[in-house]
């Protein structure tokens, strides 16, 4: 009679294959989770950088000179300048822009509705604008000496003054100038 001997060599190979496959599956799932977390973190970092750059850069820029008008009493009666969209900037809703005029002694804040504005597209005056400053458009802003919003701070000859343009998104645009040494009624002066 023959004696049967138990041989478990094949079974051990099968167990090793199952364990190996389990390790591979676990490693694949783990790597998928890690890659997903990495892609998410990279996307969030990119979003934060893009938002930071958009908020740190100015949305509008000065286009041309700043002009002041003289009065009979030797003060500035209004300030006028052109704004355009900054290079690569997103369109700016001008109705949300705030203008602040300040001197060493006083400060007045104006909403967009309280300043005079004339729109130009490619250098041509436009009357049907949508109040959204876009590419190839400029808007002339005239900050009046007196209106419903208040009175322009007294700017005498040689006074330093700042006009700060504050869009709802992006950095503020400060315009620092010095009034001319002599101001005559109804004369316009370019200031530096």
TrEMBL record:
InterPro entries in the cross-refs: Flagellin/pilin_N_arc, Flagellin_arc-type
A GO term, aspect molecular function: structural molecule activity
Pfam family for this entry, one: Flagellin_arch-type
GO CC terms: archaeal-type flagellum
Primary site of residence: other
TM region positions: 16-41
Name listed for the protein in its UniProt record: Flagellin
Keyword hit for Thylakoid: no
Subcellular location: Archaeal flagellum
GO biological process: archaeal or bacterial-type flagellum-dependent cell motility
Reported function: Flagellin is the subunit protein which polymerizes to form the filaments of archaeal flagella.
Family per record: Belongs to the archaeal flagellin family.
Keywords: Archaeal flagellum, Cell projection, Cilium, Flagellum, Membrane, Transmembrane, Transmembrane helix
Source organism of the structure: Methanoculleus bourgensis (strain ATCC 43281 / DSM 3045 / OCM 15 / MS2)
Top-level taxon in the UniProt lineage: Archaea
This protein's record includes keyword Transferase: no
């Amino acid at each position: 009679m023959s004696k049967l001997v138990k041989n478990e060599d094949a079974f051990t190979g099968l167990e090793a294959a199952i364990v190996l496959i389990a390790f591979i599956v676990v490693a694949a799932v783990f790597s998928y989770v890690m890659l997903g977390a990495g892609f998410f973190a990279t996307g969030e970092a990119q979003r934060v950088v893009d938002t930071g750059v958009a908020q740190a850069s100015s949305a509008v820029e000065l286009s041309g000179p700043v002009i002041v008008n003289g009065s009979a009493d030797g003060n500035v009666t209004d300030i006028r300048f052109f704004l355009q969209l900054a290079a690569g900037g997103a369109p700016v809703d001008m109705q949300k822009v705030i203008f602040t005029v300040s001197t060493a002694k006083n400060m007045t804040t104006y909403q967009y509705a309280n300043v005079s504005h004339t729109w130009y597209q490619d250098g041509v005056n436009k009357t049907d604008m949508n109040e959204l400053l876009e590419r190839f458009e400029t808007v002339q802003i005239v900050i009046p000496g007196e209106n419903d919003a208040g009175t322009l701070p007294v700017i005498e000859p040689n006074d330093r003054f700042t006009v700060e343009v504050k869009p709802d998104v992006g950095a503020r645009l400060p315009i620092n100038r010095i009034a001319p040494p002599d101001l005559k009624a109804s004369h316009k002066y370019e200031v530096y």
